[in-house]
Amino acid sequence: MKKSSGAFLIASNNMHIDYVKQAVFLAGRIKKYLDLPTTILTDAVDYLNDVYDPTVFDRIIPLNPSGATNEKLFFDGSMYQRQAIFNNRSRSKVYDLTPYEQTLLLDTDYIISNNLLKSCFTSEDDFLIYKNSTDVAQVRNEKEFEFISDTSVDFYWATCIFFRKNPVNKIFFDLVQHIEQEWDHYRRVYQITSTLFRNDFAFSIAIHIMNGFQKGTFAKEMPGKMMYTTDRDILWELDQDELMFLVEKKDYHGQYTPMRTKGQTIHVMNKFSLNRLIDKEIG
Amino acid sequence: MSQGIVVLAQNLPDVNYVDQATLLAMSLKHTNPKTKISIITDDEVEQQILFDHIIPIPWNDDAKKSQWKIENRWKIYHASPYEKTIVMDTDMLVLQDISTWWKFLDNYKIFYTSKVYTYRGDIADTSYYRKAFLANNLPNLFCGFHYFEKSDKALEFYKLLELIMQNWQAFYEKFLEGVTRPKHVSVDVCVAIAAMILDCVPEITNSNVSFPSFTHMKKNCQGWEDSADNWQDRVGFYISRNCEIKIGNHLQSGILHYTEKDFITKSPVVERYRNLVNV
């Protein structure tokens, strides 16, 4: 029997960033490029129903407001920044919440532009995640995405994960939840100086533990390589599968080089510029 | 055929290499209880029970005036009591059963590892320490762990190694560019030159395999951006009662080359192994 499959997005708005908008936009692209239904977990169900077309989603799961006070700086290019709440404490619950046997868990700022991720669903491996990534700028130090700290464990991206429901993956997500709950302990043990909880770090630590504190085979690589632009870059144009970025120049603060991609799925960390272009796209 | 591990240990006033070899023997007794280990030394060995043979350095001590005490390394071939020998540096610990490594080494008359690992299990970038190798295109061989089977081929190799080590300045002059020449004899460089002269690199190493090898704890090949005077100040070292070792967040396996001479006095490693193997 064919296993049920779908994508899962989490959207929790703050004062400055409309993640629900990104989720609506991404759900459309998931349907277009991957032909998958999408479930959304959000604390803004009414807002979603009032402002957007909720039928882009297969299911809408309400999320209780977390009351979290995780705050960080969000950049819009290198010259503009805003401090805002960062509600990222629900990812570990996705195993229990997803209605699918096979789930593609994505950040809402992951712009799907091809069908590469479809191959996850025919993979023999039950847990896939990106370890390898490339900064499209190619001039920045990428070391922060190699290890979670200088002396600590391998970095994995929680941005895009594929998993099937099975007992091992259940243990893994429970472990992530435990790490999240005891974050202050784990961040010290893993030499992370910042107090900010990051899913990338929690997932990386959990993978390391699942591997018996060594290199191991619990997590397999997602298809291809994850491309990303940081929030110091600006997404300038978005037309179907063609994206144009202004990429910050090395050693020239606030100066940019234009760069175009076609048919390339990209993690766009500048959420302000992404939302501006979504506004244009969906009116 | 007889087989075993051989180490060469010559104490310095401030470094007790025999103590390091004793610790290595204890680690071996724990993880590979049937594997024999012999020590070549002119120094006193307290825990003689741990060693299969205690062998005096043959043909006088070539390293009497040396600070590095490596001039006698070529003699290991001749002094080894085994037909198949793994040679290890004294500052190593064997953390797992290596019986499959012996089986793999049956395919070779001589074997040197050509890649080593960081404490995180990544292939170590040793270029910081291997400038002479890079500048002169020498094969990247590591003597810290190597193997030979007594044979015509291995004898030829070791005879040439003897010649190179005893005339290292002349060989450095011929094979190494001027500015890149080490100021002292290096057994790794001499082995690389011997391999180059005999044109036998593919026969004595295999870059496609992940073992036999070792974790090389020299601080500048760990992939760190921030440096420290030594690795022990940069990452934690933890040893459990049953001598499982973690460095930082990483459980260690294989062979650990801890490199820093104060490791055995700064950490509780000797006490833990003594309790475990009851010596």
Describe the model.
- The complex is a heterodimer of chains A (283) and B (279).
- Chain A has a single domain (5-225), classed as Spore Coat Polysaccharide Biosynthesis Protein SpsA, Chain A (Alpha-Beta Complex).
- Chain A contains seven helices and 16 strands.
- Chain A has helices spanning 19-34, 45-51, 94-97, 167-181, 183-189, 199-210, 271-282, and strands at 5-11, 38-42, 59-62, 71-75, 81-85, 102-106, 110-111, 127-130, 133-135, 157-164, 220-221, 226-229, 234-239, 242-248, 256-262, 266-268.
- Chain A has a seven-stranded mixed sheet with strand order 3-2-1-6-10-8-11.
- In chain A, α4 (167-181) packs across α5 and α4 (167-181) crosses α6.
- The longest helix of chain A is centred in the first third of the chain and has 16 residues, at 19-34.
- The termini of chain A are far apart.
- The mean pLDDT of chain A is 92.
- Chain B is an alpha/beta fold and 279 residues long.
- Chain B has one domain (3-277): Alpha-Beta Complex (Spore Coat Polysaccharide Biosynthesis Protein SpsA, Chain A), CATH 3.90.550.
- Chain B has helices at residues 17-31, 76-79, 99-105, 131-135, 152-166, 168-175, 187-198, 201-204, 231-234, 263-266, 269-277; strands at residues 3-8, 36-40, 54-55, 84-88, 92-94, 110-113, 142-149, 215-216, 237-239, 245-247, 250-251, 255-257.
- In chain B, the strands form three sheets. A six-stranded mixed sheet of chain B has the order 3-2-1-4-7-6, with helices on both faces. A three-stranded mixed sheet of chain B has the order 5-12-8.
- In chain B, β1 (3-8), α1 (17-31) and β2 form a beta-alpha-beta unit.
- The mean pLDDT of chain B is 93.
- At the A-B interface, loops of A face β11 of B.
